Amino acid sequence: MTDFVRTEIRGRIGFITLTRPKALNALSHDMIRAMATALDQWRDDPKVLGVVLQGEGEKGLCAGGDIRYFHEAISAGRTDIMDFFTDEYRLNYTIASYPKPYIALMDGVVMGGGMGISQGATLRIVTEATRMAMPETAIGLFPDVGGGFFLANLAGHLGEYLGTTGIVFGAVDACEIGLADVVVPRASLPALCDRLANGDWQDSDAVLDAARTFARESLPPSGLAPGKLAPLRSVIDEHFGLADMPAILKGLKLEARCEYSGWAEETEDLLRTKRSPLMTCVALEQVRRARKLSLADELREEWLMMRSVFNLDGRTGAEGVEGIRAMVIDKDHKPRWQHANIEAVKPEDVARFFDGERHSADNPLLALGQ
């Protein structure tokens, strides 16, 4: 179906392997369609009792969507880019609601779109090499692929912190905060796949039990970096629970004189100098709104938000195009954001991203969850 996705049935298990390692397995539209086709075929296939997702190459499962394609399509005046997001978000929902065990091997780099095809998994396995993030605000986007939903469901205000800053964290943090289930040594993943492929499973529950047992019985990975988020939970909640981004920045400025001064200074500098002012404010609002939404509703909202971020609704300015240009295309790292700083972002600038009707008849994701 595509050169960059290999789908095969081994024993009673369907394997989906992303095979685009030179691009960190970034998701193209064809890759998304290939994954969706395989999952649809296996859903009612009695020979398939479970699904394993993995990425080819040493660097990781998936670094996100093909953002070069986004820039090229918008720059050429094409609007079919929204078909990409329609199919991607449908895939995200399919995974989260899949009736058979879907086991995600979240090894190496797992960011953005890679999180979208992993977070809905029945079992999320990470390794000592896992590097996880939702870094979209750095390129003028927001944490999509259901990011608002799974970030909103983290404890306290971790979701606001991770969604606005886009910081990278590892396996221990992922398990401790609820974005992964278990750590397995990277070197043991082939043995896990062989165990699942060669087992004489009677049903899907047996497949899932075998995967969990293998994970529990695996030796602890060597070189496992300790978590960094748990010691910061109280200060993250204190600051990222404040009313808005200007208040958060003000609080971080004050905190820079106190116990967590290093973290506060680093976080304030990151938000002020390395993130889109508009999209940090949008991401904050997104996560907070998503606490009242189902995954289906959040994906419908994100589809409308994506139209805005690329100015396909003609009202918001193409923040995403400029961010991708600066960080990925020209690599000058000097994006010309629409706002000089976070304080310049007005409430109405943020509100435009959320004033679409997610249940309108022309939303292509209307049928999700129905």
Automatic annotation (TrEMBL):
Key words of the record: Hydrolase, Lyase
Key word Hydrolase present: yes
InterPro entries hit by this protein: ClpP/crotonase-like_dom_sf, ECH_dom, HIBYL-CoA-H
Taxonomy, superkingdom: Bacteria
EC number of the protein: 4.2.1.-
Gene3D superfamilies: 2-enoyl-CoA Hydratase, Chain A, domain 1
Enoyl-CoA hydratase/isomerase domain mapped to chain residues: 13-354
A GO term for molecular function: lyase activity
Cross-referenced SUPFAM superfamilies: ClpP/crotonase
GO biological process, one term: L-valine catabolic process
NCBIfam families according to UniProt: PRK05617.1 (NF004127)
PANTHER family reported in the protein's UniProt record: 3-HYDROXYISOBUTYRYL-COA HYDROLASE, 3-HYDROXYISOBUTYRYL-COA HYDROLASE-RELATED
Record's protein name: Carnitinyl-CoA dehydratase
Organism the protein comes from: Pandoraea sputorum
